[in-house]
């Protein structure tokens, strides 16, 4: 008796495969043309600057240029690790990032769930507009608002404290208040805009699931627990992975506008330290080494969290 053998896949000759690829490319030419500006942007602003990363391994001099500067290996990495500021920078950067994740990450999710429950279209759009607007306010304006609200002499917060018999507090000069002020103001500024992703995910949940749950007598809380949150879970995991991938990347713009020598103890982070060493002290190689170290750590963390997420939930970036 003859046994059945598996059919071998048909492989096209190289010339035919090339012709097929060219035809496929031509059919998608308009889509690829739309992709071209984003591709150019990434090449110019993301990949091309990688050439300058070798400054971290050279004693860089603007006169000699990158390739003309002396190769010093891991000299500046070692200097950073042995620096008296190393522990403080890592502690502050991690502290602010984890504070932002623990307190701020759930807020856009909750906000999206609340907005989704609003039935009046006009009111819903009005609420969305109001909560999105802070995202478009510059960091300079936000810090100016904070300074006005928290002013020890004329600030609204200190006026309330005084009215209740307390003494005015100079919040912006107290190290212990810096992280809280930074994180809460950041939540106010970004929560509304961040909820857009979750609002979009909510629209992708099948309405028939809610209808079936209503027929079965499920309450709104039951629908939230058993339909809405499971439907949002993949998006939440992806956003959390991305957030963990930037855990060592606390933006320097707002912090530099907020902090002062009195709050360096809790406010100085890796990005602000890099900025000061590069543009105030002119230590370009040292700053590049610290920045490269920061990027490598962020890349490692996002790889680990992506692998961990894929293992336990089968949801990952790749």
From TrEMBL:
GO biological process, one term: transmembrane transport
Subcellular location: Cell membrane
Transmembrane regions listed in the UniProt entry: 30-48, 96-118, 130-150, 229-252, 284-305
Homology family: Belongs to the binding-protein-dependent transport system permease family.
The entry's keywords: Cell membrane, Membrane, Transmembrane, Transmembrane helix, Transport
Residues annotated as domain ABC transmembrane type-1: 90-305
Pfam families: BPD_transp_1
GO cellular component term, pick one: plasma membrane
Keyword Cell membrane appears in the UniProt entry: yes
Name the record gives this protein: ABC transporter permease subunit
Membrane topology, from the record: Multi-pass membrane protein
CDD domains cross-referenced by the UniProt entry: TM_PBP2 (cd06261)
SUPFAM superfamilies reported in the protein's UniProt record: MetI-like
